[in-house]
Design brief:
- By secondary structure, this protein is mainly alpha-helical.
- The protein has one domain (2-90): Winged helix-like DNA-binding domain superfamily/Winged helix DNA-binding domain (Arc Repressor Mutant, subunit A), CATH 1.10.10.
- The protein has helices at residues 2-21, 24-36, 43-50, 54-66, 85-96, and strands at 41-42, 70-75, 78-83.
- It has a three-stranded antiparallel beta sheet.
- A hairpin with a 2-residue loop joins strand 2 and strand 3 (78-83).
């Protein structure tokens, strides 16, 4: 019974994360923050880069925070947002944990692009 409750709680968290990403602007925000790294970006910078009005951005950041996908960090008068990599990795793990159990798996790992840093 306890494992069923634990699975239900895990399922709910994963569903919340998927719902959080199931909107074009929120997905774009999350991808930008993942690309940015653990230091994140100020809300104003996110708005500028994605050309999102501040009020709309605020709504989407609230939803992403509620879903556990981003972490806000107040620094002076600015709020910096960063991707919650633990939630992202847990979601990826959840979605792939039963991959190809009934057959030979022909799925290779994700395609990883390596970027060169401009020197």
């Amino acid at each position: 019974m306890l494992s069923q409750i634990s699975n239900c709680v895990g399922d709910r968290a994963n569903l919340n994360a998927l719902v959080g990403l199931a909107q074009e602007s929120r997905l774009a925000i999350f991808r930008l923050l993942v690309e940015q790294g653990p230091n994140g970006l100020a809300a104003g910078t996110i708005a500028e880069r994605l050309e999102i009005v501040n009020a709309t951005l605020s709504f989407h950041l609230k939803e992403l925070t509620r879903a556990g996908l981003v972490i806000p960090n107040q620094s002076g008068s600015f709020i910096y947002y960063s991707a919650n990599y633990a939630t992202m990795n847990a979601l990826i793990s959840y979605l792939t944990e039963n991959c190809c159990q009934d057959s030979k798996c022909k799925v290779s790992g994700p395609v990883i692009k390596h970027r060169r840093n401009a020197a």
